[in-house]
Amino acid sequence: xxxxxxDLLPSTRRALLHRAALAQRDGRAPSLVAAVxxxxxxxxxGARTCVEGHAPxxxxxxxxxxxxxxxxxxxxxxLRDEGLIDLDDPLEKHLHGTGAxxxxxxxxLGHSAGLGAEAPAPWWERTPGxxxxxxxxxxxxxxxxxxxxxxxxxSNPGYTLLGSLVEAVRGVPWEEALRREILEPLGMHRTxxxxxxxxxxxxxxxxxxxxxxxxxxxxxxxxxxAGQLWSTASDLLRFAAFLAxxxxxxxxxxxxxxxRAPAAPTETGSSGYGLGLQIVTGAGTVLFGHTGSxxxxxxxxxxxxxxxIAAVVxxxxxxxxxxxxxxxxxxxxxxxxxxxxxxxxxxxxxxxEELLALTGIxxxxxxxxxxxxxxxxxxxxxxxxxxxxxxxxxxxxxxTWTGQDDYYAGETLRVVRRDxxxxxxxxxxxxxxxxxxxxxGAAVPGGVDAEGWRGFSG
Length: 458
Prior knowledge:
By secondary structure, this protein is an alpha+beta fold. The protein has 2 domains: 328 residues, DD-peptidase/beta-lactamase superfamily (Beta-lactamase); 82 residues, Beta Barrel (Lipocalin). 24% of the residues lie in helices and 22% in strands. It has 11 helices and 20 strands. A hairpin with a 2-residue loop joins β1 and β2. α2 crosses α5. The longest helix has 17 residues. The chain is globular. It starts with 9 loop residues before the first helix and ends in a 24-residue tail after the last strand. InterPro entries: AmpC-like, Beta-lactam-related, Beta-lactam/transpept-like, DUF7586. Pfam families: Beta-lactamase, DUF7586. This is Serine hydrolase domain-containing protein. It comes from Streptomyces durocortorensis.
């Protein structure tokens, strides 16, 4: 196992190269670039190509397709954080006359607005954006295919609307807002709307013969916020570091965490979608990121936040190579071979005796819980034995705590005291927690039987 900051072991590097080589061969991609980042540092990159003596590298541009959507989502969250919009706002409040104005910004971000998956014919990915000069040309005569808010239904036109929302609120083109607010602060100088050399050309490979056909690379026009961008493995790993930790120059860590929270359930139990980010769970791990494809290109970007590992795979082939799957496997190779070394345990820098006195055993009815003190006056309430509803809580300025997880997310925990200042119970969203089960004298809803606990003899 390596120490933090060291390079990967030779065996791990070989395993990564082997997986990338198999992907290029079996996916019959003219070229492929892959790269892995750990703890914010590029630790491996590799490439394979059908061109003898020449290979792309982590600075070679490929088209990244729908990974563009994550950038658009960041721009929208920036508007929210500046108070210019609210995620619950109907689109019509900021962008008029779309025909889909009743859907909310939140629904558009999470693909639950009920909009169609694609723009009307002709196939928008292989034709010039000039064929769709107005939003009506993107949405078509029947923009909605499902009731808003009822289900996740992936929508490329939905992100066209979000890009137009950014332009309407900012007063500048989407590309300018992107460059000024994300690309320049993060140092992503090789991410552009149009290809800049060195870049790969897009190819289709015949399904039944090893022959190729050049694919067009169109300017998508209004559809650009859904899939226009070109980028490199190096640049995308910079973006991955931001998606893992946040960056106050672009978006605070709390807003990035919000992007990673499921916004609407998908029809597959092992995946979900946040606000511009795909979520994949399995085998005890959670990956965040996005996939992308346009004719001639496939791309995958995945981040394991817990292990602080990110991987990118870019290839210039229309189909046959599952870039997203390969990128996830690269993350898994590193996480399994060289798991992250945990930080040493350290005691709290200071302790509040009043809070310390709250820790220990509490009961909700006859259910037993433990309360622990965390850093920054936080609390953690867990069922005894680990099964059931539990949560961590962050302290507020008013002497209460707010739940951060699952059932209790957003719920308020408060300490209720008697007239003499002693603690009577904890109140969590109206649930009463007492030191003893149905503690006599405590303010238990419905009261406590005055006869107390008793046995039974038949």
